[in-house]
Amino acid sequence: MSEGNMNLTLKVWRQKNQKQKGELVTYPVSNVSPDMSFLEMFDVLNEDLVEKGQEPIAFDHDCREGICGMCSMFINGRPHGPKEGITTCQLHMRSFKDGDTVVVEPWRATAFPVIKDLVVDRSAFDRIIAAGGFISVNTGNAQDANALPIAKEDADKSFEAAACIGCGACVATCKNASAMLFVSAKVSQLALLPQGQPERYSRVQNMVEQMDKEGFGNCTNTGACEVECPKGISLENIARMNRDYLVAKAAH
Amino acid sequence: MALDSKIPEGPLAEKWKKYRSTVPLVNPANKRNLEIIVVGSGLAGASAAASLAEMGYKVKVFCYQDSARRAHSIAAQGGINAAKNYQNDGDSVYRLFYDTIKGGDYRAREGNVHRLSEVSGNIIDQCVASGVPFAREYGGLLSNRSFGGTQVQRTFYAAGQTGQQLLLGAYSGLQRQVGMGSVKMYTRHEMLDVVIIDDKARGIIARDMVTGKLERHFGHAVLLCTGGYGNVFFLSTNAMGCNVTAAWKAHKKGAFFGNPCYTQIHPTCIPVSGDHQSKLTLMSESLRNDGRIWVPKKQEDAEALRTRKKGPNDIAEDDRDYYLERRYPAFGNLVPRDVASRAAKERCDAGFGVNNTGQAVYLDYAAAIDRYGKIEATKQGIDASAAKIVELGKAVVKEKYGNLFDMYEQITGVNPYDEPMQIYPAVHYTMGGVWVDYNLMTTVPGMYALGEANFSDHGANRLGASALMQGLADGYFVIPYTIGAYLSNEIRTKAISTDHPAFVEAENNVKAQIDTLLNIKGTKTVDYFHKKLGKIMWDKCGMARNAAGLAEAISEIQALKAEFWKNVRVPGSADELNPELEKAGRVADFLELGELMCKDALNRNESCGGHFREEYQTEEGEAMRDDENFAYVSAWEYKAESNWELHKEELKYENIKIAQRSYK
Amino acid sequence: MSSSSSFFTSSLGRKFVMGITGIFLITFLIVHVGVNAMVFLDSSGELFNTAAHFMGTNWLIRSMEFVLFAGIILHIVQSVVLTRANKAARPEGYAVSGSNVNSKWYSRSMGLLGTLILMFLIIHLCHFWVEARFGIWGGIPEGTVAGTHDMFAQMKIIFSNPIIVAVYVLAMISLSYHLMHGFQSAFQSLGLNHYKYTPAIKAIGIWYSIIVPVLFALMPLYVHFVINK
């Protein structure tokens, strides 16, 4: 139908499994339509590889509308590719030019080991949430939802922090593979709400402790994470976490 | 086998209250020894798992994604309904109940829907308590909007990311239990069979998708919270990984499948752009609040638009057909989803589609921009030029819908402020699912289905903002009580060894299927079959169906299935991460499900909700229900390949008077 | 559920130490540059020598000297620990890096810039502080008042060498970039980020990291090209 006429050279990281070494492999792709998403371009390439009897490229993806946080891919040196404020599944081929060479690598961090090709293990994020990224309220405990008014400004800020999709782009792009933006987003979301107050200071300690255990690097405030975050999570959250952590350690 | 829906006796409003207070309990010491398997970690699964673990049960949760947080509940945009009446606009439990039954075209159970409506308020309380940042007013209280054409404002929301916020709330509760050791989480695991021992569900076979290892897991009960099966159409708004496999394996082991033909087609999605298309993107229904939907009146204009000889702005106002406003003057562009979708299809089928595929209509904001611009000019007290009005109007529209407009431009490359958006309906939700009784138990004792995976609460059509409500109702407030009715009799059942022959046999069957798929070594990819199946389903069992088409579809699907098992090519091996193998297993099940959907649609000789049979329509082209003969739930029992037996659960309306739905 | 891990060995604690020592060193630079500026006010060097003498003999300043060295050492030790942890957090790098788009080069090069500054610091200490305290290489010329150092004279000797002047100027360029990131980064690490005040902090930081190093760099240039002529 409306397949296009762009030709690209892809260099994709291929790695059989966690133990074996990987390498960049070159694939020419042709007849790419500018209307395709980046992942659809990979679908077409994979179809092609299967038809040729080769192993398709494994990559994480699911919702393909920029919200599940599953897709990753470090494209030409940037997580989720050259455009800001979007995930890889929202990146369309019209953002590239005919004849471009595109290098696609997995997220790289000790805490995110490569499972296969472009697929990495991000379960460290789950463990950080399990360490404290919640409000301890059992089902059935809740009072009426309107019993506690929350200033709109706080609720909005909390929501902005809660918009994090846990994709790991912040870790991937940080020169230190630090997870501060991710952790601080959850810490902030709950610290800004009255419901989050009872556990505010134990939460930040427990989450930071788990973050450190997972082997993420440290924040040097380069701000790359904020630029690359598909959901625009602000560095203010990191400052808030720093503050809460200091108070927690000093007074709790 | 007679179907027993187990709806408690008594007046409608008392049923749940009384049942909840009399359902048998399990004492805390015994709970520690009872194991529950939850498959799926979306709203239903995560909320159920967390709640059950809090109560003291030992819980195992399985999901195919790399984290529980990624389940597709996350993609829901609009909101969640609850009968809180915070807006003092006359909402009540009864009104939500009534709207849901009516919206479902009188094909849902009164008892279930009333319960759903009763617990809806608790859901909001629970979510707020667990840190969900819903939208608020300046006074600090929760904000509501009206959604999907209801007359009250009962929808709670968090910008356009309500599903995300609710799921993350449920997920954090789940992770809390994981941290405390009361839930064991298995990510990147896919359930490939249930294990039945002495006619009861006793466990599952799951594949570790990273190592390929097959695992046996025992449970006193198994909860399927695995979502809907919209991906049978290949193109849908579902996530790529959404599948029917868990539900289908359960079905083949004895769980009846309810109303498989009820599919919701969402009217406002971005149209297909080419063969490469992998999924469809939903544009929030809220866009219909201000946008006007039209196609050209003249065929030659449509032709010119399709070949891009003309643009939409070249079509004169008089040459535009605002067909929803024309056909439904009372509701106009705000008619329910099924009606809006069918009307778009009708125009496109008649040759008025506006893009190169002929499968798109316009959603136009020009009038809204003009209207808002004028209001804004008046507000600011300026005598604005036409250009200034447009500028002011665009600013207002940007404020209200900016993120959606950006998303549209991102995907299509067209600026929707200057040119009307193109939209077309797409598969969005499946009302059908595993048949369950009032306890949410399937026809297999000990096996439950929650959320979109079951068939229960939406009848033939789901209202906007009700899916989130149902998923959380089932998980937070229904299953924690109703599971006691079963588990209180299981306290003497010791954990069964996974060396039991039933586990061995189930694992061997799964292994055999995987080996078969890998050894066909045919010439066609899995997606080839999936796309073909999707096309058959969309063309013949989609927005409109007819007997001849459905009969054709059944034989086409059977032929496709035969070809699949002869000629599919699955590369790689079983003992590694192998996405093609995963897809192959899912498509194999979709091929069987597709046939049942067509069979169900063929059986239902009426039009209702998401099921529109062309033979059964009024002269004006509206759906025509047949309450005399079809006021029942179709529950299909699997007998053998391509062989099902239909059981009918009669729907009794004791509190609501059945009426024709009209939006004229 | 309070955790027992120590603040100072946690990632955030270490960052806090980096930030607090950084701000301390920033305030020290103001004092230092203030004393230096005496040279521009009085080219005879008398004013400068008086200030230097005060700095070298006042008990409060002298005791702060220990704090200063402690601060510098802490700043360095923490940065080494953090850098090692950061390297371990990504042992295998990317084939292509697009970091120029999302961050400033100097914010990513604090370790390198800091190392250059450290090397300079050692040279600088040898030139003045070590000589004043221990007189290893002949000591500092005696001032007009017996028992005092003529630091101004020492400066004229040191800055007569154009290579040393160049080293000082290059070091100040490193310092400038180090501060350009470090100033606002320190506030962020301490958790001081507020939409009202942060823009001001950032602006002050930029001015500071230009003005202070420029003043420092002007001194050897002034001595070499104006006073020594």
From TrEMBL, chain A:
Q: Which GO terms describe its biological process?
A: aerobic respiration; respiratory electron transport chain
One GO molecular-function entry: electron transfer activity
Q: Which cofactor does it need?
A: [3Fe-4S] cluster; [2Fe-2S] cluster
Gene3D superfamilies (alphabetical):
3.10.20.30, Alpha-helical ferredoxin (1.10.1060.10)
Q: Where is the 4Fe-4S ferredoxin-type domain?
A: 155-185
Pfam families reported for this sequence: Fer2_3 (PF13085), Fer4_8 (PF13183)
Please name the InterPro entries in this protein's record: 2Fe-2S_ferredoxin-like_sf (IPR036010), 2Fe2S_fd_BS (IPR006058), 4Fe4S_Fe-S-bd (IPR017896), Beta-grasp_dom_sf (IPR012675), Helical_ferredxn (IPR009051), SDH/FRD_Iron-Sulfur (IPR050573), Succ_DH/fum_Rdtase_N (IPR025192)
Q: Which PANTHER family match?
A: SUCCINATE DEHYDROGENASE, SUCCINATE DEHYDROGENASE IRON-SULFUR PROTEIN
Q: Which NCBIfam families match?
A: PRK07570.1 (NF005746)
> Would you identify the family this protein belongs to, as annotated?
Belongs to the succinate dehydrogenase/fumarate reductase iron-sulfur protein family.
**Protein name per UniProt:** Succinate dehydrogenase/fumarate reductase iron-sulfur subunit
From TrEMBL, chain B:
Q: Which residues form the active site?
A: 337 (proton acceptor)
Keywords associated with the record: Cell membrane, Electron transport, FAD, Flavoprotein, Membrane, Oxidoreductase, Transport
Give the UniProt subcellular location, in the record's own words. Cell membrane
- Tell me, in one coarse class, where this protein mainly resides: membrane
For the keyword Cell membrane, the answer is: yes
Task: Report the GO molecular function annotations.
Answer: electron transfer activity; flavin adenine dinucleotide binding; succinate dehydrogenase (quinone) activity
Catalysed reactions, semicolon-separated: a quinone + succinate = fumarate + a quinol
Q: Name one GO biological process term.
A: anaerobic respiration
Which ranges carry the Fumarate reductase/succinate dehydrogenase flavoprotein-like C-terminal domain? 530-663
Topology class, membrane: Peripheral membrane protein
Q: Which residue numbers delimit the FAD-dependent oxidoreductase 2 FAD-binding domain?
A: 36-468
EC assignment: the record states 1.3.5.1
Family stated for the protein in its record? Belongs to the FAD-dependent oxidoreductase 2 family. FRD/SDH subfamily.
Q: Read off the PANTHER family from this record.
A: SUCCINATE DEHYDROGENASE 2 FLAVOPROTEIN SUBUNIT, SUCCINATE DEHYDROGENASE FLAVOPROTEIN SUBUNIT
This chain's protein is named succinate dehydrogenase
| Source organism of this protein record | Solitalea longa
GN (gene name): sdhA
Automatic annotation (TrEMBL), chain C:
Designated name of the protein: Succinate dehydrogenase
| Species this chain originates from | Solitalea longa
Supply the InterPro entries for this chain.
Cytochrome_b-558, SQR/QFR_C/D
**Gene3D superfamilies tied to this protein:** Fumarate reductase/succinate dehydrogenase, transmembrane subunit
What residue ranges carry the coiled-coil annotation? none
**This protein's UniProt keywords:** Membrane, Transmembrane, Transmembrane helix
Query: Lipoprotein among the record's keywords?
Result: no
| Annotated Gene Ontology cellular component terms | membrane
- Which regions span the lipid bilayer? 16-39, 59-82, 110-130, 157-179, 200-223
